[in-house]
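Researcher: For the record, we're logging two predictions in this thread. I'll number them. Prediction 1 follows.
Model: Prediction 1, sequence and structure:
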Amino acid sequence: MGKAKPANRFYRYAKISEYMFRRVLWGFACDLSVTEVARNTKLSTNSVSAIYQRLRAHYVRIGVFNSFYDNGDAIGVSETSDAYELALLEFHLKRISQMRGIPHSQNSSDHHFCESCWRFQLIPFFEGRSADAAHNMIFNELLTYLKVGGPVGVKAADLQAVRRCQLEFLNRRSAWLERSSPEFKSEDSRALLRDIRET
């Protein structure tokens, strides 16, 4: 007899249904607070906070969330710019000031900052489209990483599959920016995006 499929393909910790996990992941994708997601799902704030912490740690571990100071890259923005660094730090401080389930652990601040760096790169995708469309994009990307790289809690993630997804998503994002973003109307900026896709 073959092994029974796990009840939840994306999360290997608590006994939470896949449906409920998707609802929590949607809240995470939308950057909702722990309290908001707990209220929407009827889960306890402790349960949602634990899932959020494990999601952050997992995405950092597989290289989806990276720190600005660890050579993480930003689309169409020069990371050597002092203005970019200042804007990123202001964005991060605003996020954590809203108490989004910040855990008390040695790595918690690093994980939150890596998440902020990742989200900061997504700001242009909220311009020229509805917030729901941008959140759907983020949710689908986060879920895809769990599908191809392995669930939260897996011991050995498929990092090569994750890298392939990152490249595919980068191509999709840069194509959308070239086509639709107000910040990329000039031919120079469009050429930069084409170079990114062809590299």
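Researcher: Logged. Prediction 2.
Model: Prediction 2, sequence and structure:
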Amino acid sequence: MIKSCSPEAIAIAYRNHARETAHQSAEVKGIEDAIAALKIHLRHKQQQLEQLRRSQPTEEQLEESRQQAKLHADRINQLSRELQAEAKALKAIADEITPLYWQVYHKPFITGFSNISVPHVRSDGDVWTILNKLV
């Protein structure tokens, strides 16, 4: 087909083909660049999603934490009962020796028993409350 054309026509055909090829190459390059940018954006969004998933505790993690908190609350309540018993025993001793202590030292043996409190953890199932129980 080109053999039958004039040299000028052949030159024009080659120029047109070169222009079209350059235009197509530029379009392909632009599409490839856009795809690469979208892949980077997708990876970034996937990383953000993964970080969000890690930062939001699952129900299983919440339940494990609740169980740990319950163990600590039970231990606090146990220590509270022990401390309450010890304070009552101390008060009983103080009540017993205070009259004699007044006679010897002219001052009380121990003061402040009306203000002694111990922590106590209580839960209604959803909300936990720490109270101070008076001894």
